[in-house]
Amino acid sequence: MKNAPMNLVSRYGADTAFMTFVGMLMAFLYVPIWVLVAFSFNDSRSLTWPLSGFTLDWYRKLAENTDLQAAIWNSFYVASFATALTLIVGVPAAMTLHRFAFPGKSIFRRLILLPITLPGIVTGISMLNMFKLVGFQLSLETVILGHATALLGVVVTQVYARLQRLPKSLEEAAFDLGAGPWRSFIDVTLPNIKTAIIGAGLLSFVLSFDEIPVTFFLTGRDNTLPMYIYSTMRRGVTPEINAVATLIVAASLVLIVAAVIVTRGRKNQ
Amino acid sequence: MSALSRTLAGRGLAKHNLAGAFVVGIPILWIAFFMLLPYGIIVVTSFWLKKYPSFIPDFQFGNYITLFTDPQYVLVILRTLKIAILVSIASFLLAYPFAYYLVFRCKSAALRAWLYMAVIAPLWVSYLLRAYIWKTILGTEGVLNSLLINVGIIDEPSSIFLYNQFSMVVTLTYIFIPFMVMPIYTALEKIPTNLVEASADLGMGPWRSFWHVTLPLSLPGVAAGFTLTFCLSFGDFIAPFLVGGPDGNLIANVIATQFGAALNWPLGSALSIVMLVIVLSIVSLSDRMERKGLTGGL
Hints:
heterodimer; A: mainly alpha; MetI-like fold; B: mainly alpha; two-stranded antiparallel ribbon; about 80% helix; about 0% strand
């Protein structure tokens, strides 16, 4: 009896404490992004508070920057091919893990998942060593090979998780009805894991577009977008970088919405 | 049952050997050429000898001896371990109460989905930019300093915010916190609510229920979160470069220097092997803890 109001008070107190905490965490995550966006429209070269006035000059400068445009194009090229490659290797890898038993399978699994936790720099320098040894010229193509390797684990975990949730009876039925492995994959398995593949592909694309540690070691004369921004940053902090950043944040937002739509589509199935 | 049906499905495919070889062959070849071979090559290179202006094949442990005796490298390895541990702890302290609130306290499913999304979403925003943000905020001519001067808390720009280990920990925590939230959230979500209710019915207060029921059951998620956050910040070289300052070099920066200006690939390779071994030990340690947590907890 006596405890009831006390409990109510402490419960209310705990809820308030939790809400405050969550609010502060959200501020920690999002205030910096707003600051970044705000300064891309500020008409002063220095990034100091308070804001001095509104301008679109930094965006105009971007539109005239041909190096930047080349870098963006290079990034699209690298991310598209790296995503395609990592799906071509990753989907069969997930299927292998899902249904075959063979000696060395646990090593196989560990190796494939390793790049998720392994710092990108190790993937980068080990492939750099190899390419130099066999006399490969560094280029955007070597970057593509590096990205595909580094992102393999992402694709495999996503597709494998989906495969595990599929009822085995589906494929068995296809085999019983006389479908070959190719037919049963195209007609039965693929439609069921389609959204997982799209989701994994989208994620690989974004991660590859954004990748630095592997790119840093494997690229030749051409720069990808993050490498270009990185080299600009060496020269100092400018609102021009904030303008690129704002555009990237906007593009990320579009991709997040796309990803949510893909996931929602999965739930409706 | 599932093992049986798996063999059946496998046999269906095995009948067509070509397709099976194709499915298994592509990933195995890829791994052999682009992972095993390169890793093997850095292992070999790590025993080579630097000889000006290049390096020569050899088999000697000089590079490893240098790494573990030269104070310059020992200091970097220890500093990297320290930063990675601090980042993991900071992320944990922020992520656990947040995930706990979402799973057990948040009544509205829509709000829960939004908040979860809000923490994961930054992963889609460029990682480089998330590091750069903190350079612009914490710098001497940055947003925080000018704001504090404007409000009147300080008189002149202070350099205490940027180019030290504090700024590195803040930045890396900001970047990697989603990797701590995701596994903890998943682990908490799996805990049946009737277990917590049962412990309350048996007279345990909320703190004791948490300590004896919820926390132990969520440990596998905590272990996974620590592993990811630790390994990711351990190998980072962008944040140290942007916000770490002259004394903020981490292992990855030193590796980059060895492959760049210092042109000592053997030493860089040896350092990469050290990094690889540390990461692998952490991963297998957490694998073991996760398995123990699962069997011991239930």
